[in-house]
Structure prediction request, 419 residues.
Amino acid sequence: MTEEEAPTIATKRRRVVAAAGGSPQVITSITDVPSGILAHAASFLAAPSKALFAISLDQDSAVLPNERSSTIVGNQWDVLDFGQIERDLAEKLTDLIIKRVLLCIDAVNNLKRLKLANCTKITGVGLEPLRGSLMIEQIDLSLVGDNQHPELDPEPPISWEHVLPILDSIIAVEGCALMHLQFPLVWRNGLYTDSDFHAFYERYNEMYRSRGVINCLECNESLPTSHPPGEWMSFGRHKNTCYGCLKHYCNYCMIDGKIKYVANDCGKCKRFYCEDCTQVHVCHGRECHLGVCIDCKYECHKCNEGFCEMCLDRDIIEKCQICDRYCCSECNECYDEEEEKGMGMTCQECDIKYCNFCRLRKFRQGQLDCADCIKRIASLLVGVSSAQKQLQEENEQLKVENGQLKRENKELKLVISRR
Prediction:
């Protein structure tokens, strides 16, 4: 091969496509692909992935949306929900990446709802592009997805020192569209009347009150129904505004003298939903009967009844540390004859929480040496022995019946052959 031939052969590895004007265009990397083709490929991605794809192609889009990034992401950005991408990816996103995404989609002029599910690495400084937005209606800073408890371990680094000035710039603008805020649990746990966070949500309540009278869409009563009156946000939690549709409702309405539950403040996900946005399940726990989102309930694997977060904390329903199944106290196989009541999963001696199925399996494998644990499954061991004996007897009976059927079949064949 001559030196003159080498470039000719090398060019065969390149892709040649027609550019917008019809002239051929050499493709050596993905950044050389025409914007229209990239936009078409990105149309199959979830919204956050589409924006991440755009900023990965051109870091300039982190400063100012350019022609390529604008073509890829478009301008329809009512919702940016990071819960739509893989959790492992969302947990790696930094403030710089969040900032680039918000700039890339021109969030201050386009975005209505922002949900930062699983973005547990951010401090909040990356939300700067939302400053002064007249479009934003909802910001979820809880950092968890749908039907998840907001408690995070370890505690996330998100700081109100970075976020509150941005939120203040939004609620201070005339024509503010903000209707719902969901705060991190770590902020609400550290809520004091002399804190900056408490001072902010007082300003937020004042902003809401300045909008005039807002009535429940079901019964037409004035809202909010909180105590003290006039607080749309109390103890860091939003009241009377549905997380899903952002419409306003009472928790329950008095209609024709009867109580009608039209919304629910879920005890697990800590979100307020109307009945149109999520089905409410009434907890089966004794003297509980709190409402939880249908997908937030803890379901007993035996009776299929649903329970709330409070019942989980009180061990009315428990989760096995091995199989991850839930079992309520009413369905627990274990019975204490001295106390004449069922025992929970947690052993008082070894402090291990197993369901009795897993305890029995560990006992058979020779891995259970706790006397109290063995006591808990004693009735099951007797039951298993009785069941095995019954099965053996039934098996012997079936063998006898099977032998009899064979003899009858043989005799029948003999009769037929003689005819």
